[in-house]
Amino acid sequence: MSERVYFFDTTLRDGEQTPGVNLNQEEKVEIALRLEQLGIDVIEAGFAAASPGDAAAVRAVAKAVTKPMVVSLARANKGDIDAVIEAFKGIDNTGIHVFIATSPIHREKKLNMSKEQVINKAIECVSYAAQHFTHVEFSCEDATRSELEFLREISEKVIEAGATVLNFPDTVGYTTPEEYSELFQYILENTKGVEKVILSCHCHDDLGLAASNSIAAIKAGAMQVEGCVNGIGERAGNVALEEVAALLETRKDYYQKDTGIVLKEIAKTSKLISRLTGVSVPPNKAVIGNNAFTHASGIHQDGVIKDKSTYEILKPETVGFMETKLVLGKLSGRNALKKRYEELGYTISQEELIDLFAKYKDLADRKKEIFDEDIIALLETKSAAEHQTTYTFKDLSLQVLPNKNYRAFVHIIQKDGSIIEGIGEGNGPVDAIYKGIDQGLNIENDLIDYKIKSISKGKDSIGEVFVKIKSGDSLFQGRAIHVDIIFASASAYIEAINRLISIHPKYAVAETK
Ligand SMILES: CC(=O)SCCNC(=O)CCNC(=O)[C@H](O)C(C)(C)COP(=O)(O)OP(=O)(O)OC[C@H]1O[C@@H](n2cnc3c(N)ncnc32)[C@H](O)[C@@H]1OP(=O)(O)O
Ligand SMILES: CC(C)C(=O)C(=O)O
Ligand SMILES: [Mg+2]
User: Fold this and answer.
1) Where is this region: Regulatory domain (predicted)?
2) Fewer CB within a 10 Å sphere, N or C end of the chain?
3) 46: CA distance to ligand 2 center in Å?
4) Distance CA 241, CA 265 (A)
């Protein structure tokens, strides 16, 4: 049978210790209500002794939620404990979290206390707290740099004094999965009265091991895991609770643990906390990052199109995200391109796909991100090419003249494959190019309109050029799209000229030139 793991969320206390984060009462209440939806068992709402504002927020949170137990942190001194008692006066389902450091470094350098003094302080404070609360968590701060025997000794004493939860924090993210699991095994095997309490783990991520250490503790017998949504917290942060929850769900086959977490609430909770704390979620963050369910490479995209389980161990819907995403880029393959066209409502044959894919790769080499507008534009390029009549733009080069004018050398391909060169000078590059085309093709017309706009997003967006030319009373338009707007400008102009010569007898000769 699966055992239950309790989730203790300290986003509102340790999470608020993230440099630069400051949550007011309203924000704490809003987050707490979300945490309740997420199925958190215990919410640490703050540190009542820290300020009158935090005491008020802790109280407001306790009044706002109904299901989770709400606790406040307190140092091992009467003043801090009294602040918690005061904050929770008259509110049910509240508790206290008392801590004192146990490691030699903290005892000697910070507290200036002997082992005996630390134990006596802990007993005195836990006893006092237990007179006011039925839920009393006691934490051995910096447990992972403390002597195991001392942890056992203080644990036995605080259990006797009335502690109901014992927490062994890896305060500075120093431990490793093997070592942390040995700590829990040692406490479980050697501590008198341990069967009466819940053992808890609390991991910081200084060496990137917070999730591994938490899961090792759970495997070794910890029944409660403490952490913050989005992994925020002091320094490198606390373990990201959503990672532990997703792991226990995904690997239930191995860990066989139940939790009260409503996984589909994860995305909403993460977004709210990111917004209210101002701490953004890195795109590659496990479970909640923007890229966590996004596939970018052709081989992976092909696999996911065939069956999502090839590259997804967790469904995005399970944790409240909308869907698996395939992003088109330089590394995508034909199958992903075809699927995107289909999603956009275009039916593409295999032959068309071969042609489009070549153009797509050419575009992807030039552009960082490919948007839907880009691939639709590729289809349009294709149909423009099909309509192509007499002339096609080949290439050009530009010179800046000493008088700041431009000289353009334009190469145009005729239907029979021969190349025409035109040379033109103008006060800008497009002016010079258009004069070069006119000169090469010996065609007179007036440019009536020239418009340019970007089709998709970003600095490397595709440009669309629209031109209108006039010959006699007739107007002819041309349109072209390309990453290079100079190329697009020349192609659009030549397209307009193709239309002109196709209906203008005067230029019929031009076709056979
Ligand atoms: C591992 C953790 O995350 S612990 C939680 C950390 N969170 C916070 O500190 C946020 C809230 N803190 C605060 O607002 C302030 O630090 C307060 C109001 C709690 C205390 O402020 P001050 O009284 O000015 O003390 P200050 O913060 O400068 O120093 C801490 C004092 O508490 C003592 N102390 C530290 N931990 C404990 C403890 N668990 N039990 C008893 N005393 C402790 C220190 O030795 C120091 O004592 P000293 O003044 O005699 O040297
Ligand atoms: C107060 C304790 C539980 C803590 O946050 C830590 O040791 O990291
Ligand atoms: Mg902490």
Assistant:
1) 392-513
2) N
3) 12
4) 12
